Amino acid sequence: MVDRHRLSFHSRANLPGTSPFQAQLCSLIEKKQSALCLAADVDTSAELLQVAEELGDVIVILKTHADAVEDWSKETADALLEISKRKDFLIFEDRKFADIGSTVQKQYIAGPFKIATWAHLTTVHIFPGPAIVRALEEAANKLRNAEMETTNGPSMERGILLLAQMSSEGSLVTGECTSSCIEAARKHPDFVTGLIGQSNLRGPQDNFLIMTPGVQLPPDGQIDDSKMGDGLGQQYRTPRKVVLEEGCDIIIVGRGILSAQDRVQQAEKYRLSAWTAYQERIA
Ligand code: S5P
Asked: Where is the secretion signal located (predicted)?
């Protein structure tokens, strides 16, 4: 049997165990020839919508930190959703839920952000215990049923990404935490779309995707990526290393793109670098 990470996204979309949402994401990657998620870490709604317009064609996912956008509002979410539909990318709110089930349900559905109403994906820590996944899935299902009743049509896809490994130096998200994420992903294949990880954490039968932050291209002329970081704990590796050598699926890139003079050209560099590494991996 061929390991999943050696198969094309097209083949993975059509595997029997792949959930409809995982299949949709795999097909989108194949269609846009992009396994790039932009970490849109900007300060204002205007900047957020501008990068979404500018880079929407090059990416498959746009990741937000809504609580770091100083003027976030319902209008921001509505406008971002409109751009995501027009430019065909998913929205991922990097909320990193980490509380008891009843609290995260409220944080997901209600509160000032109402994340579940506009984000297709959100991040979740497993360390409060596996019930956090069940609680969020229950909340997502309730919302979907309510939406289908009112609109009489299909509702938006929703899934979560469990933090199985982190890119930051000295991270304690290791060992038992990592294996609990894998176990939860196997138990909830329709809701756990993937894992945030630094390596291919899949067994030969697993369909979940691996999304990887801590990615940067080295400055021009530098080949060695072993000492790249931001001085605040973030550690970087190249798209080629994480996709080809580590077997990860989607690269998450923030400052590597946002700090460039020409963001479109820079995003295209990252897209191509990850795509070339992926093609080499499945060849
Ligand atoms: O382990 C992680 C998990 C995440 S989601 N390490 C990370 O850096 N992230 C997020 O990815 C982080 O919150 C930030 O939004 C992005 C990386 O940004 P960059 O500017 O360092 O590329």
From this structure: none
